[in-house]
Amino acid sequence: MNAVYWGLTALSIMGHGDALDRDEMVDFVMSCWDEEAGAFSAHPDHDAHLLSTLSAIQILLMQNALNRVDIDRVLKFILSLQTPSGVFAGDAFWETDTRFVYCAVNALSLLGKLDALDIEKTVAYIRRCRNFDGGFGHVAGAESHASQVFVCVAALAILDRLDEVDQPTLCWWLSERQRPNGGLNGRPEKLEDVCYSFWVLSALAILDKLAWIDSSKLEAFILSVQDTESGGIADRPGDMPDVFHMIFGLAGLSLLGYPGLVDLDPGVLHACEHHRKFGSQEGVEGFAEKDFVICIGIAVGLRSSHHATTDESNTGVQAVECHYVAMIVSYIPTIC
């Protein structure tokens, strides 16, 4: 389920969201419905999970097919996973993590059901996961990690509670994630990885601090990990590309304002230039076929004409964009 979502989102960022067969995608998503749990699994006949359920909602929303979902049952499933401490489990086996807090908040927001959430209890748990360096861990007392920073900051943004973030300290910690080669790591003393181009940048963008890193060096790093022969983006130069790193590399480039890509709003609260807040009670009602939403934790709106492809600065991704599209399209049928 997640791989289909990553592929669809990567294509959509490049303006090719229609490259995959809509009916096949929707049929695959619905084949992952767990009737007993009232939620979605990662693959048919697997157990329902909160992460897969969020991805399913995101895919169906982008495909204007959310009417296929039993929203009341999904709501019951999500709320059943919140513990007395405020953290969420991912499934019936009760592994807890701030990732699942974010999944719950984002899913409820997309469904227009945030009013059903105990917001104060949820925020209180996120607060407990905040560390002296301004970052957040996967559970209370755990080491700060860039991906956990994203899920906590994004959840707080959706809940309109960014007052809980120690912004100067956190943004300093995030800016320290940049390595000499321009790439970003997830925590001190670790190697750079292209996926942190999104996790770090999105948090900085939500807090309006993108200028705290060297964007030109990061852009050069992301472009350096492309496979110009077969298409795709890898974690580091010379490694094998995959859809996971491709989506987060492209999302990072878009947040940096790279030409030819879709604009991303890392705050998740609205689709650029369009429509209602995700958290509003109207939920997804009234979504038109042309409405375009991507939610990795982000809302998006297409730039007009996707920018002119004759711009010299656009050659980095445009030169291999056709390879990216072909690579993703070749991956997805094996998943569906």
TrEMBL record:
Annotated ranges, domain Prenyltransferase alpha-alpha toroid: 1-266
Listed GO biological process terms: protein localization to membrane
Reactions mediated catalytically: geranylgeranyl diphosphate + L-cysteinyl-[protein] = S-geranylgeranyl-L-cysteinyl-[protein] + diphosphate
Keywords on record: Metal-binding, Prenyltransferase, Repeat, Transferase, Zinc
Domain of life: Eukaryota
InterPro entries according to UniProt: PGGT1B-like, Prenyltrans, Ptb1, Terpenoid_cyclase/PrenylTrfase
EC id: 2.5.1.60
Record GO terms (molecular function): metal ion binding; Rab geranylgeranyltransferase activity
GO cellular component terms listed in the entry, alphabetical order: Rab-protein geranylgeranyltransferase complex
Cofactor(s), names only, from the UniProt record: Zn(2+)
UniProt cofactor note: Binds 1 zinc ion per subunit.
CDD domains xref list: GGTase-II
One Pfam family per UniProt: Prenyltrans
Primary role: Catalyzes the transfer of a geranylgeranyl moiety from geranylgeranyl diphosphate to both cysteines of proteins with the C-terminal sequence -XXCC, -XCXC and -CCXX.
Family in the record: Belongs to the protein prenyltransferase subunit beta family.
Complex formation: Heterodimer of an alpha and a beta subunit.
Record's protein name: Geranylgeranyl transferase type-2 subunit beta
